[in-house]
TrEMBL record:
Taxon lineage: Bacteria, Pseudomonadati, Pseudomonadota, Alphaproteobacteria, Hyphomicrobiales
Source domain of life: Bacteria
Species for this entry: Allorhizobium borbori
Gene3D superfamilies assigned to the protein according to its UniProt record, in alphabetical order: Conserved hypothetical protein from pyrococcus furiosus pfu- 392566-001, ParB domain, Vaccinia Virus protein VP39
Protein's UniProt name: N6-adenosine-specific RNA methylase IME4
UniProt cross-references to PROSITE patterns, sorted A to Z: MT_A70
Length: 403
């Protein structure tokens, strides 16, 4: 019999557990020739009912060659799914499969055991788990396998499937809006929790009339009386300050270490002239804060200056501690605000209003200001703000206001 005749006479190798693609004609002819010379070396496996689990090609060749008693092995007690999975595992481990054959093996495995996890099947077949997931999705969409909510992993544990379906293109913009709204709401709820925690912590801070409070405020707002460069021996820029000017070291020492009025997690808003930005950052660091950004007050009318005529002042923002109370995106204020300056050193109420809006309900301490200096209706008179200045030691009950 010629090779062509051998191939033409090739019997069917179909069966309930034939889960692998058939051998090519060349491989089948080579296996037949080997069995004719050496016999069946790998036992054919059957279930208790006589159905072939593994060795369909060997069984067919034995039938062709008249071999009636080849080596065999009977497996008992396996479920239908277990029989198919067993057949798959034996063949995948033994045969060198092309990518197309591996895909067919994945399809067969999913048909036999759809509850098997994609990672478990990928490990057995030798493909990436994403490949199995893609095949699973295609087969589930056509109804070839059921759409499952859970799969069984290699460790035998059942887990919920994480399925993602791409929306139609026309729905993507609206879904992005929904996703953004969900994220924003989650961030808001999370921030409210952190704010509540800081409020509880600040309630245990130390407040004594006439003394700088200790660890009592999650928000600090400060406008230090910086020493300004004098333009002549007769006049100087610090002549109109509400408080005596302080040196950089004095300002840094005021709230350093255990003298800090801020809670362990807090935010600090520090006013600084444009020519003292580097000193402002030094103060933030001395007070235990890390500089994060700043806001700008555009004073509209140019003032004095050596290199340029100053037309703005900066409000540095620093943070410290593990509990973040930064505003939720979309609710944070703009960084630039314009308002014509009035009397020396008086800052626009707008900045205090933004701080109050962002940190509503939290205790705030304003340094170097007095309650009596505020106009009626000022947001800082709502009971959540307290004040500390040089008068504190002499006028403690008036200066360090509670409530």
């Amino acid at each position: 019999m010629t090779a062509v005749e051998v191939i033409a006479a090739r019997p069917s190798v179909d069966g309930p557990y034939q889960v692998m693609p058939p051998l090519s004609d060349e491989d089948y002819a080579a296996l037949k020739a080997d069995i004719a010379v050496r016999g069946v070396l790998v036992p054919i496996e059957y279930d208790e009912k006589g159905a072939v689990l593994d060795g369909h090609h060997r069984a067919a060749i034995c039938q062709e060659l008249g071999i009636t008693d080849p080596p065999r092995f009977i497996r008992k007690g396996l479920s239908e799914d277990e029989k198919r999975a067993h057949a798959l595992s034996l063949n995948v481990n033994r045969r060198q499969l092309s990518q197309a054959e591996k895909k067919k093996a994945v399809q067969a495995w999913l048909k036999a055991s759809p509850a098997k996890s994609s990672r478990a099947i990928a490990s057995a077949v030798g493909v990436d788990h994403k490949t199995v997931s893609a095949v699973r999705k295609d087969m589930a969409s056509t109804g070839e396998i059921p759409q499952l909510e859970k799969t069984v992993g290699r460790d035998g544990r059942s887990r919920s499937m994480r399925t993602m379906f791409m929306p139609p293109t026309r729905d993507v913009p609206e879904l992005k809006k929904v996703a953004k709204a969900i994220r924003t709401e989650q961030m808001r709820v999370s921030r409210e929790t952190r704010v509540g925690l800081l409020a509880a912590i600040s309630a245990h801070g130390r407040r004594v009339a006439g003394e700088m409070p200790r660890a009592a405020f999650p928000v600090i707002y400060a406008d230090p009386p910086w020493q300004q460069e004098a333009w002549s021996d007769e006049t100087g820029q610090d002549k109109g300050l509400k408080y005596p000017a302080m040196s950089l070291d004095e300002i840094k020492a005021l709230c350093a270490g255990d003298k800090s009025p801020a809670t362990a997690s807090a935010e600090c808003f520090l006013w600084v002239p444009a020519n003292r930005v580097h000193h402002g950052i030094e103060v933030l660091e001395a007070w235990g804060f890390t500089y994060v950004t700043c806001m700008v007050w555009d004073k509209v009318d140019p003032g004095m200056g050596r290199h340029v005529r100053d037309c703005h002042e900066l409000l540095l923002i620093g943070k410290r501690g593990p509990i973040s109370i930064a505003p939720v995106p979309g609710e944070n204020p703009p960084s630039l605000y314009s308002e014509r300056k009035t009397e020396h050193s008086r800052k626009p109420v707008w900045f205090a209003e933004q701080i109050e809006r962002q940190f509503k309900g939290l205790k705030k301490l304003e340094l170097f200001n007095r309650r009596e200096s505020l106009a009626a209706g000022d947001v800082r008179l709502n009971g959540d703000w307290e004040f500390w200045g040089f008068e504190a030691a002499e006028n403690g009950k008036e200066e360090v206001a509670h409530g």
